[in-house]
Amino acid sequence: MAAGYLDILRARHAARLLTGTLVGRLPNGTGPIAIVLFIRAEGGSYTLAGALAAAYGLATAVGQPLLGRAVDLYGQPRVQLPAAVVSALGMVLLALTGLGSLPLAYLGVIVAGVATPPLEGGLRALWPSVLKSEDRVHRAYAMDAVAQEIMFTVGPLLVTLLVSLWSPAAALLVINALGVLGALSVVLSEPSRTWRSAPREAHWLGALRSPGLLALLGSFFFVGLALGSITVAAVAYADDHGRESVYGWLMAALGLGALIGGLAYGARQWAGAPEKRLRVIAGLLALGYLPLTLTPSVPVMTALAALSGVFLAPAIACSFIVVDRHAPRGTVTEAFSWLVTTFGVGAAAGTAVAGPAVELGSTAWSFAVAGAGGAAALVVLLATGRLLAAPVRTAAVVTGSENDRNGAVEPGFSSGHKA
């Protein structure tokens, strides 16, 4: 496993692209956390904090596929860096406004969300031209999922550290400044500057004309809902125990569990259709969320949080392969951006529901939202099994990658589709 990941990282540009993308995505990965902590510090209620975090998530959901399609049409540098700058300015507006003007606060989070650059989808579009073989790209997907969990482990701790050293407003500003630097590193790299999408069939639905992709997105909406609800539920749990640091440890434990699960998943090559494998992983993910409703003591709850995250990275890594198999030709960045979008919409729904669940019921009720989300994700995968069993084989069938016109990838492999 380690040797396989090192082989990928030794490829020219790979380490820079992965690191730049992770740093560039820090604002998006920690945005809901930073918003909730900032609004609570300003004296806002859980409901208001959840509503602003939900607005940010919904705005991201709107912007990602639009910007992803723009990347497929116009290339990465023309879209990614300007979007990162505008997104950061939106968070600056929130930090300066606080709760002094709610319309401006909502405007800030909406601008920040809509302009979030599609770095995640962009990286997966670049892997084929950098790694040049299907097996290495699939391993890169697993490494990508593991690296995300490192970010989701370190990100909450970084936010809480910045809050404790300075203030929640300072945390918003620093995180977004880092995001702009990460995006800058990516777009200045040779693979990003030279990448071009494969020719695409003109269709207003774009990537969404794939039934299998729609089925996957429906399932991962509920995975996002589960994760979004945990963001608010963990803050409420920390308040119940009178220690702000508990929140950071719970979120870090969740990320650590996913990191361990991702490493284990990437340690071997898996036989059989990834769509069937994803159903098993989703079932185990749903089971992992249910014990959180017990809300036991802090040490036990931290252990349960880690356990609940074990199957998250494997589910994400497997979903990347499924997207790759079902995305129509020339829509690779857009297709992966739609996956980010469904997470955003689901997370927004989760934060919006979990806030009132705390205030009308209890902290346990907000964690129950996560369990219900995991169960719903599994139900969608089971109900759409026939759609997922048939990868796109029409206009998406190609003989090379998005960059194969330059001879960058072995024949027979497409970054936009795996037949």
Question: What are the SSEs and their pairings?
Answer:
Blueprint: H1 2-10, H2 14-24, H3 26-41, H4 46-74, H5 77-97, H6 102-114, H7 119-131, H8 134-165, H9 168-187, H10 190-194, H11 211-240, H12 245-265, H13 274-289, H14 298-308, H15 312-326, H16 332-360, H17 363-383, H18 385-388
Helix pairs in contact: 2-7, 2-9, 3-4, 3-8, 3-9, 3-11, 4-5, 4-6, 4-16, 5-6, 5-9, 7-8, 7-16, 8-9, 8-12, 8-15, 11-12, 11-15, 11-16, 11-17, 12-14, 12-15, 13-14, 13-15, 13-17, 16-17
Which descriptors would you attach to this protein?
419 residues; mainly alpha; Growth Hormone, Chain: A; 18 helices; 0% strand; globular
What this model shows, in words?
It contains 18 helices and no strands. The protein is mainly α. It has one domain: MFS general substrate transporter like domains (Growth Hormone, Chain: A, Up-down Bundle), CATH 1.20.1250.20. It is globular, with a radius of gyration of 20 Å. The C terminus is likely disordered.
Structural class: mainly alpha
Strand segment tally: 0
Silhouette: globular
Strand content: under 5%
**CATH superfamily assignment?**
MFS general substrate transporter like domains
Residue stretches low in confidence (pLDDT < 50, at least 5 long) are: 393-419
The amount of helix comes to over 70%
Distance, first to last CA: 26 Å
- Alpha-carbon Rg, integer: 20 Å
Helix count equals 18
Provide the CATH architecture. Answer: Up-down Bundle
What does the average pLDDT come to? Answer: 84
Q: How many strands, what sense, and barrel or not for the largest sheet?
A: none
Number of domains: 1
